[in-house]
Write a structure and sequence with these properties.
79 residues
């Protein structure tokens, strides 16, 4: 290993940069492959919660009320 490092130090700058970027690309590709093979491709369906179902039903009304409040504030500023 020490021989390799000493030989690398004696090489010209462009060769050192090429070796560095090749090494970085190889390690990045290896990490990506590890991530890809350990990634779970099958996902389970979320459990339906009654409270969550009620919240999703009420959200449009909440957003409409919020938009109405913003419109009234905007009207006050324009006056």
């Amino acid at each position: 290993m020490a021989n390799f490092l000493q030989n690398l130090q004696n090489k010209p700058e462009p060769v050192k940069k090429t070796i560095m970027w090749t090494s970085v690309s190889f390690v990045m590709f290896a990490v990506f492959l590890f991530w890809l093979f350990t990634f779970p491709f099958q996902t389970s369906q979320p459990i339906r919660d009654e409270g969550l179902a009620n919240l999703t039903k009420e959200m449009p009304g909440v957003w409409q009320a919020f938009k109405g409040q913003l419109d009234s504030i905007q009207n006050l500023w324009q006056k």
